[in-house]
Amino acid sequence: MTYKATKITIVSEKLIQSGITRIVEDEGAAGYTVIEGGGKGQHGVRSTDRPKVVGAFGIVKIEVVVADRGVADAIADKVAASYFENYAGIVYLEEVEVLRPKKF
Amino acid sequence: MTYKATKITIVSEKLIQSGITRIVEDEGAAGYTVIEGGGKGQHGVRSTDRPKVVGAFGIVKIEVVVADRGVADAIADKVAASYFENYAGIVYLEEVEVLRPKKF
Amino acid sequence: MTYKATKITIVSEKLIQSGITRIVEDEGAAGYTVIEGGGKGQHGVRSTDRPKVVGAFGIVKIEVVVADRGVADAIADKVAASYFENYAGIVYLEEVEVLRPKKF
């Protein structure tokens, strides 16, 4: 028996990590995961002039799973509106299944 | 041409990584990926008293893709039953598409 | 309001990372993310004789989100055909939702 939930993934420059996780917490998510990585293009690199490759630890991937789709949409909208006009980064949503919805 | 498969993602404290991967192998998965990261809340931090942030390498994210949904459910159920009463951590399932089902 | 997009995930030995990202760029993706990790079995370990565990930074997970499903299929097919006859590795596709399709 599984329950529907939504995963929000945000890939961004590490510089704005704390601002993003503050939005995640303010919207009521029960937790989040942060993975460091590298990338190119909109996947986390500021496009001052043109895309460039960022080393292995220049970007972060923040993942959040929430049971409530409205919370997921609010997180995605606020992160995009607050940061992704001025910083490179992407946000996307996925449907997932969880075993214990009260954890999320 | 793609084939349906299921991805199981487990986020947990690094302390229990080897126990989790043993379940994954015992259930017959063809392989798994382990990524190190940090997090907060149910995403990998033991909640002795209240959620706290864990540094960049305090948690692991283990991912497994299997062609057989029954195997995916068995892995998720056994990991949750064996560990997630006493340790913080989450497990979730996603439908994915693979090119070569015999690899999984 | 969200729009459908496709995420391609490739898990492979680090040795072939630059060849894979060249295919990703040649097919027209707007960017990609690279995460380092470990694993076992088809998830990134060359099976010279039998699967073995690879340390924390032996493999890479490359993720790409594209708005165009045809581009996603082309990337997946070319990576599999170019590398996964001779190297261990997996590729899988997932449907995701994005806020701003022009970024992808």
Write the layout of secondary structure elements.
Three copies of one chain form a homotrimer.
Chain A: E1 3-13, H1 17-26, E2 31-41, E3 54-66, H2 69-83, E4 89-98
Antiparallel strand pairs in A: 1-3, 1-4, 2-3
What is shown here, in short?
Helix content of chain A is 24%, strand content 43%. Chain A has 2 helices and 4 strands; from the N terminus they run βαββαβ.
**Kindly, what is the distance between the CA atoms of the first and last residues of chain A, rounded to a whole number of angstroms?**
16 Å
Structural class by sheet pairing and helices of chain A: alpha+beta
Task: Give helix % range of chain A.
Answer: 10-25%
Second-tier CATH architecture of chain A: 2-Layer Sandwich
Instruction: Provide the gyration radius of chain A in Å.
Output: 14 Å
Features of the shown structure:
alpha+beta, 104 residues, Alpha-Beta Plaits, homotrimer
Task: Give an account of the 3D structure.
3 copies of one chain form a homotrimer. Chain A is built from 2 helices and 4 strands, in the order βαββαβ. With 104 residues, chain A is an alpha+beta fold. Chain A has one domain: Alpha-Beta Plaits (2-Layer Sandwich). Chain A has a 4-stranded antiparallel beta sheet. Chain A is globular. The model of chain A has no long low-confidence stretch (mean pLDDT 87). The A-B interface holds A 2, 5, 7, 21, 25, 29-36, 63-65, 94-100, 103-104 and B 9, 11, 35-45, 51, 56, 59, 61, 76-77, 80, 84, 90-94. β4 (89-98) of chain A pairs antiparallel with β4 (89-98) of chain C.
